[in-house]
Specification:
By secondary structure, the chain is an alpha/beta fold. The chain has nine helices and eight strands. The longest helix has 18 residues.
Length: 261
């Protein structure tokens, strides 16, 4: 899954895709480089970020989705917490919903996902992006995250979302410490008991802490190690900024791992 942030304040790329033409070109490059899904978002959810209105999100993402849908058949994911934005994105050609609030921020999200019968990604986060890195505590992070994701999965199913359409994401970097992120990556295979899972560790702060690389684009190599952990843990989707590098890396890793079996 290739990440396309249509925001002026993305933590990872400094808003380089904020302009519509650049965003569309970047999405097409990701598709050419092997992305199986394009994940498009118009609201930054980095730690400390402030929410934006649905109107702002719509202005940012809908034209890009419409243009991409005309030029590529690669499935498109809308990264949003708002049902109004998700509904417009689906109408514009998006195929799945990626919600960092696990369909809990907007009560209409579960209704929309159930009605449209589209795949959904339920990400783990406590609180809001603005506050999520404050007062972080888990009794045992992997068990706690898995248990909470299972509860939110069950809530979605009770609202009419088909279980077979649900993916979960442990939320690397979302209300987690450096140690929590590493533990989740080391034991991500335990999430399989909840649902097929997504790992989004690309260019995250903990990679910079380990490598000493301050800027997102300098964290590609470290992010590939996280992609390897996701692959070995059985992730269904790896969400990344650097599609070409990750696709090449995983192709070689997969070929080697197949020889070992």
């Amino acid at each position: 899954m290739g990440i396309l942030n249509i925001t002026p304040d993305s933590f990872s790329d400094g808003g380089v895709h904020y302009e519509r033409v650049r965003a569309v070109d970047a999405g097409l490059r990701m598709a050419e480089d092997g992305a199986a899904i394009l994940d498009i978002g118009g609201e930054s959810t980095r730690p400390g970020s402030e929410a934006v209105s649905a109107e702002v999100e719509l202005e940012r993402v809908i034209p890009v989705i419409e243009d991409l849908r005309k030029r590529t058949d690669v499935p498109i994911s809308i990264d949003t917490r708002k049902a109004r934005v998700a509904a417009a994105a689906l109408d514009a050609g998006a195929n799945l919903i990626n919600d960092v609030s696990a369909l809990r921020h907007d009560p209409q999200m579960r209704v929309l996902a159930a009605t449209k019968r589209v795949p959904v990604i339920l990400m783990h986060m406590r609180g809001e992006p603005r506050t999520m890195q404050q007062n972080i505590h888990y009794d045992e992070v992997v068990s706690d995250v898995a248990r909470e994701l299972a509860r939110w999965r069950d809530d979605a199913v009770a609202a009419g979302v088909e279980a077979s359409r649900i993916f979960v994401d442990p939320g690397i970097g979302f209300g987690k410490t450096y140690e929590h992120n590493l533990e989740l990556l080391a034991r991500c295979q335990e999430l399989v008991m909840v649902a097929p899972f997504v790992i989004g560790a690309s260019r995250k702060t903990f990679v910079g802490q380990l490598t000493g690389r301050a800027s997102g684009p300098d964290r590609v190599s470290g992010s590939l190690a996280a992609a390897a952990a996701a692959y070995r843990g059985g992730a269904a989707i790896v969400r990344v900024h650097d599609v070409r590098e990750t696709v090449d890396f995983l192709k070689v890793l997969h070929a080697i791992e197949e020889r070992r079996r």
